[in-house]
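can u do me a favor
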């Protein structure tokens, strides 16, 4: 019998507790203690006899507990609990992507020193076994690239905007009401959540520690329904994609951003809160994983699978060669990457504006592929109106010079999206 201490009894923690009580697979597991921040808080979602404590030492220092499951969220407090648990000889399971992305090297160094497993499948894409695939199924292949839809909130919003022609604000309000988005959705819609997850996946894929904070990152919070419409009229679909690539002997090249994907691209058809990751490797070519990437139920199932791996002796024990303990990956110059771009500019509604915009692009040698100025109601002179254009292939460095010149000329906030051709 493997004895478990659980830190955190939120929606995911409650889901795991239910599985531990009801799943036949969990018959060899026993939940001894649940750490909560407030023992007096009513918890009708938990069994009445759930043993609660507000003292972390009741988990980390209890000699009867074999595994500590960390589901608190955040970084500082969870790191203290996880590191103390490992120091006391306990295995660890966590769904905390931020903890791994920021303190992974320290956690895996301690686990390697104590020869203890760390289960973290649930930290990225919940019920989709992407970490298991990278660490086991593809461990002898050389992975050259990853790209994926790894944030369910953003994908839900973009799907609703595409299929129902609903505004971003309306879709976000619905997502918050249904529990697909947090009351403060900034971490998801800004791309930060996806960058954190991709940092973990890239570290495992490339065998070098990839700092997610160095990935150029933008989100979907600046998009409008007009952008979705125009992209689809051109034969594309907008998705928030986290992508990294590492050529042979090269530096990591990647970004997290909303991009225009051609409709035939495998990620273009991923709907609602689902996740998907496409892997390129030398031996197998292309591998695609898709599934439910968020939510209490799939996360709890994955946590239970990690616990069973530990209880049955199948869990991986990190060694000194673990990717989180390897060299820090260098990054390529993202500004030099060549691509086509979609832009929605806010320009002054006055004669000569189009010529001025075209001149800014021409000054940097950037060729405009298409241009559209949607009709808007008559407004007072000097108002800003939308101007939508696409470019031929250029690099982001030159495009940024154009945008700086347009801003100096009085243009408003721009939407700039990379156009993927394949």
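np, heres the sequence
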């Amino acid at each position: 019998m493997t004895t478990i201490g659980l830190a955190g009894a939120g929606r995911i923690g409650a889901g795991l507790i239910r599985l531990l009580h009801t799943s036949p697979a969990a018959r060899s597991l026993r939940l001894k203690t649940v750490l909560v921040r407030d023992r007096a808080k009513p918890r009708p979602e938990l069994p009445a006899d759930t043993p609660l404590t507000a003292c972390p030492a009741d988990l980390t220092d209890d000699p009867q507990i074999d595994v500590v499951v960390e589901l608190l969220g955040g970084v500082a407090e969870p790191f203290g609990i996880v590191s103390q648990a490992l120091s006391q000889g306990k295995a660890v399971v966590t769904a905390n992507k931020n903890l791994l992305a920021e303190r992974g090297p320290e956690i895996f160094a301690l686990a390697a020193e104590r020869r203890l497993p760390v289960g973290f499948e649930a930290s990225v894409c919940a019920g989709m076994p992407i970490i298991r695939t990278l660490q086991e199924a593809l461990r002898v292949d050389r992975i050259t690239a990853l790209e994926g839809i790894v944030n369910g909130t953003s994908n839900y919003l973009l799907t609703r905007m595409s299929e129902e022609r609903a505004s971003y604000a309306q879709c976000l309000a619905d997502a918050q009401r249904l529990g697909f988005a947090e009351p403060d959705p900034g971490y998801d819609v800004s791309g930060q959540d996806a960058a954190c997850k991709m940092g973990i996946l890239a570290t495992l894929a490339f065998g070098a520690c990839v700092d997610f904070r160095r990935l150029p990152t933008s989100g979907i919070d600046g998009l409008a329904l007009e952008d979705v419409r125009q992209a689809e009229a051109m034969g594309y679909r907008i998705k928030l994609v986290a992508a990294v690539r590492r050529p042979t002997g090269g530096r990591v090249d990647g970004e997290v951003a909303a991009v225009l994907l051609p409709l035939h691209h495998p990620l273009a058809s991923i709907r609602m809160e689902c996740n998907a990751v496409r892997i390129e490797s030398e031996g197998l070519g292309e591998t695609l994983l898709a599934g439910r990437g968020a939510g209490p139920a799939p996360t709890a199932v994955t946590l239970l699978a990690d616990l069973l791996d530990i209880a049955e002796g199948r869990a991986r024990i990190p060694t000194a060669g673990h990717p989180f303990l390897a060299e820090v990956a260098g990054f390529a110059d993202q500004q030099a990457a060549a691509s086509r771009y979609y832009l929605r500019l806010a320009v002054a509604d006055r004669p000569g504006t189009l010529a001025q915009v075209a001149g800014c692009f021409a000054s940097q040698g950037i060729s405009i592929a298409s241009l559209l100025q949607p009709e808007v109601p008559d407004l007072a002179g000097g108002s800003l109106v939308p101007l939508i254009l696409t470019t031929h292939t250029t690099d982001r460095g030159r495009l940024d010079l154009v945008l700086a010149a347009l801003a100096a000329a009085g243009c408003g906030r721009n939407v700039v999206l990379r156009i993927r051709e394949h």
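The radius of gyration is 24 Å. hope that helps!!
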